[in-house]
């Protein structure tokens, strides 16, 4: 299936017109196609649904062929007609990153300009929309790069923190060993002093006993 047709089909499955196929949208489509309820979740996951519970156009288009063997989606979008705005979106073949309210405002203004038959103004507006979409993608890429950089910095900080903790533990262990050695030497010195004192006292007693016996 060509890209414009995929776009139209994606738009037809996007029942809530949110720019992505929510699980509730997908359930509605499956029911209209007579898919058993027990298979809906499995088919939804086959489209690479996000954890948040939706399918974006990229996942829809990349896995359409695989899923269409089980789910006859082509028949669902066969009778759908496109507005001039939808035809324009299909023509530029992009995935919107803008909010639903902004997309609705863009679509309403596009319809109004298209109805006026002012081709110069319409062309300028189309270029403006494409620039806006391009800017939104650039912002997304910058955010992803920033997120990657922050994650890498966090990993480095965690690694350095772990190394610092290991170093502190080693220093503490060395300090404890030194304290134990010093305490042991001190005790050995005290014991040696007491032993010498004891030996001196015993020697004095022996000397005194010898004098008394003589």
UniProtKB/TrEMBL annotation:
A Pfam entry, by short name: EF-hand_7
Protein name (record): EF-hand domain-containing protein
Gene3D superfamilies: EF-hand
Domain of life: Eukaryota
SUPFAM superfamilies: EF-hand (SSF47473)
UniProt signal peptide: none
Keywords assigned by UniProt, alphabetized: Calcium, Coiled coil, Metal-binding
Domain EF-hand: 1-36
Coiled coil ranges: 143-185
